[in-house]
Amino acid sequence: MNVDIHESWKPYLQNEFDKPYFKDLASFVKSEYTNHQCFPPGKQIFNAFDACPFDKVKVVIIGQDPYHGLGQANGLCFSVNDGVPHPPSLINIFKEVEQDLGFSYPKSGNLMRWAEQGVLLLNATLTVRANQAGSHQNKGWETFTDSVIKLISEKKENVVFLLWGGYAKQKIKFINKERHKVLTSGHPSPLSANRGYWFGNKHFSKTNYLLEQVSQTPVQW
Fold first, then answer.
1. In sequence order, which residues have a C-beta less than 8 Å from that of residue 158 and are 6 or more positions away?
2. In the chain, at which end, N or C, are there fewer CB atoms within 10 A of the end residue's CB?
3. pLDDT-above-90 percentage for the chain
4. What's the gap between Cα 33 and its chain centre?
5. How far is CA 151 from the centre of its chain?
6. Given pLDDT bands bounded at 50, 70 and 90, which one contains residue 3?
7. Which sign does the torsion angle of CA 53, 104, 88, 161 carry?
8. Cα separation of 66 and 136, whole Å?
């Protein structure tokens, strides 16, 4: 696995890349991509970092696993490539944006437009085997992405963390709540959303309000 990552992250993450666990992880990922169909495409594994340089990060959204269907995952959590049907969670995210801010429902489910505005769309696990959800969990990715969350917490200020669902909420222990803002709600998946734990959280308007309070440009969701 080539660690092809935006230059802005390298000074902060090079130590991580040199650790034994990461070398083992890289060997595992390389073997998986050689012997099985895996997602996202190899060049997009670190897409979240390439699309959102370290100095631009102002919002962090934490997902769990890449989509495991053909052509869906593009390295940004909850995002799919242009022209790909929107998965259920993404549909509910866009519905909440629509209700919260009055934006019309978008045609494309590609969230690159968010990333380019400073939204780090970070999955806890960055790769997956085709049609096998969770197949690359507990191989080292979580250690790496937890270190990314800690790094942002320690080195930046006034970042808004959006933690959706039980898994993402566990990451709160890595975030300094004196330096940053944390918004939590249920997950946008239908199971959670239909029970009333997602819709109406107004996380998108709340995020923009918090950004404006510290003289940051709001996100065009």
1. 58, 179, 180, 181, 210, 214, 216
2. N
3. 95
4. 21
5. 15
6. confident
7. positive
8. 10
Alpha-carbon distance of 75 to 161, in angstroms, equals 19
128, two tokens: 């997956």
Amino acid at 162: L
Q: What is the residue-averaged pLDDT of the chain?
A: 96
CA dist 141 → 34, 63, 93, 187, 188 (Å): 18, 13, 25, 21, 23
Closest by CA position to 6, among listed 44, 61, 58: 44
Q: Do residues 40 and 48 make contact, with C-beta atoms less than 8 angstroms apart? A: no
Q: Using the CB atoms, write b or e for 179-200: b if 16+ within 10 Å.
A: ebbbbebbbbbeebbeeebbbe
Q: Which two tokens stand for residue 118?
A: 């400073």
- Marked catalytic residue, from 65, 82, 100, 146: 65
Using CA atoms, how far apart are residues 14 and 3, in angstroms rounded to an integer?
Answer: 10
Answer yes or no: is pLDDT of 2 > 90: no
Tokens 């969770």, located at residue: 134
* DSSP string across 83-114: TSPPPHHHHHHHHHHHHHH-PPPPS---THHH
Query: Which helix (H) or strand (E) is 43 found in, with range?
Result: none
Per-residue pLDDT of 103-132, as tens digits, reads 999 999 999 999 999 999 999 999 999 999
